[in-house]
Amino acid sequence: MNQTKKEILNLITNYCNENPNQRFGQLLFNLNINEFKKDSKEIRDIYNDADEEILERIKQRIKKLKNPMSRICNP
Description:
This protein is an all-alpha fold. Helices cover 60% and strands 0% of the residues. It has helices at 3-18, 24-30, 51-66, 68-73. The protein is globular and about 30 Å long.
């Protein structure tokens, strides 16, 4: 397993531990691993997303979740 995958799994594990009442599917969306297509209710296919892209989405989402003001200004 490469370092990027380890980091992704560590971030998911930490988030799960901090949010034990969330279902796994909720975690995937809340961390922006899965997401909807822009201006659509369809789930965007992430099959071809690079691990690094997914890692960056997770990091940005966690940063946003930890900063309450960013959620108010940029929901």
